[in-house]
Amino acid sequence: MLNRAAITFSLGLVLAACGASGVTPSTTRVTLIRARPERASYTTKYVQLVIFENESYSDIIGNPKAPYINGLANTWANMTNSHAVSHPSEPNYLALFSGSTHGVSGDPCPLIFKTESLGSELVEAGLSFTGYAESMPRDGFQGCQAHPDHLASGYLYMRKHVPWTDFTKVPKTDSLVYRGPLTVPPSRLVWITPNMCNDMHDCSIATGDTWASKNLPALISWDAANDGVLILTFDENDGSAGNQITTILAGNVNPGQYNQNIDHYNVLRTVENIFDVRALGNSRSVAPIAGVIK
């Protein structure tokens, strides 16, 4: 890949050759090819994002009620200094999916954006994206909520946790009901949003951990054998200072405990770099996660 020095040196050779042949530089047209920014080289080809709700790092890591997630943290790559970007839920989902909160400071619905997002970028690049939402009533659903219950939020499905439904450039055919464990990812990028109970929003940490233990092992095993990475993270913490959250990367990674200070924009930038697509919004000004993904 060309860098600035290489371009300058090559231009100098072209101009020198023109002078030697009697052609003046003022009459010579030179076309420069703008080099793309240098990117880390990954063997990873597949990514899955799984998002839980409203628990601080210290609520999860070390908690005996979350044995499966703690097992992932001890086995794979645990980001010990990971943070959400905002409160409440919806701005964080938008940040992770599009690089911006779009000025959203609450949980309004519906939202409609005609801008680019991670999903539309992959589609335009000839790659593939699938967004799965548990308890969504049907594929391509655009409603704000569904499946009333007697839990805190009143519904099992809430669009505010399903960001791709807000972006008109993401085909509705890429928005699917999550019906149970995946053994093979159907797309290069898969986003899974558990329902309002299983994501720990309305139900306990133990409930979310049990869901994870039933739904993630097959995907992680596939990733480890097929150059994929599963990223388990949270939208925000419990409202305590620092907004620190659990973020774990499993599969085609270098295991360990990593103290890099990251947030949703760093995670987005990492996924963008894996797929070699343009960095969106605030992800342009942050670094990808370093040294973790192979």
Poorly predicted spans = 1-38
Helical amount among residues, as a percent range? 25-40%
Q: What value does the Rg take, in angstroms?
A: 22 Å
Element-by-element helix/strand order: HEHHEHHEEEEEHHEEEEH
What's the CATH superfamily of the largest domain, by name? Alkaline Phosphatase, subunit A
**CATH architecture group name of the largest domain:** 3-Layer(aba) Sandwich
Question: What percentage of the residues does DSSP assign to strands (E)?
Answer: 15-25%
Based on secondary structure, the structural category is alpha/beta
Q: What's the β-strand tally?
A: 11
Shape: globular
Task: Give a concise summary.
This protein has 294 residues and is an alpha/beta fold. It has helices at residues 4-20, 57-60, 67-75, 89-98, 118-124, 205-215, 217-226, 264-275; strands at residues 46-52, 77-83, 129-134, 145-148, 155-158, 175-178, 189-193, 228-234, 244-251, 256-258, 262-263.
